[in-house]
Structures are given as C-alpha cells and as structure tokens.
Amino acid sequence: MQSCPSVSPVYVQAHRHFFRQFQDSLRAHPQTDGTVIGLDYDRVLFTQAGETQTQFVLRSQPTRVTVGADTAQVLYQWKEAEMSDGRNLAFSLARQQDHWLITAIRPVE
Description:
By secondary structure, the chain is of the alpha+beta class. The protein has helices at residues 9-28, 50-58; strands spanning 64-67, 71-76, 88-96, 99-108.
C-alpha cells in the first residue's frame, strides 16, 4: 500500500496503527485454530472478496463526485444484484502537490 502513488501517508498510517494494535492483541491472546477474526476480510474495501471487489471498482463509474478546492469525495453505489461482491464505498481524497491522494475509504449504506 505504501508504494501506491494514489494513497496518502495518513491513510497508510491509519492501517499501520490498526495492524500494530491487532498484533499486540494476538501476542496477548494467541489464536491457533481457524481464521484470525478481523483478518478474514479486505480492510481496504470492506469485503471478503478483495480481488473481485477491486476489479469491480476499476470497471465501475462513480455515482457521485464532489470536488472542493483541495478535497474531493467519490461515491460508488451499486445495485443490489451487484452487492454480493462488496459494499457501497465512499473515497475521500486530498490534493497534495498537484496530485489527488486517497485519505480514506469508508463503507456506506
């Protein structure tokens, strides 16, 4: 994620923080059987079908784009039949040095 030129350092830090906390929790309470709860889905796109959802987003058009001076919101909403691959998503972006960087991705209803 860090090598992706479209992702802000703030976004990367938020994910690092989550995984550090998760690592500390696993050290304190080891889990030896089954899938580790919390790591059984794609934390970026909020789905268990990360690869499928990525391809779905890449071939989709945003439902709404709102652009401010240095920020933008991009909303992807899908029809119910398409939702088996994942949830509706809202991307927050910020302009830094003439480039748009993702600062957050959130699931939306």
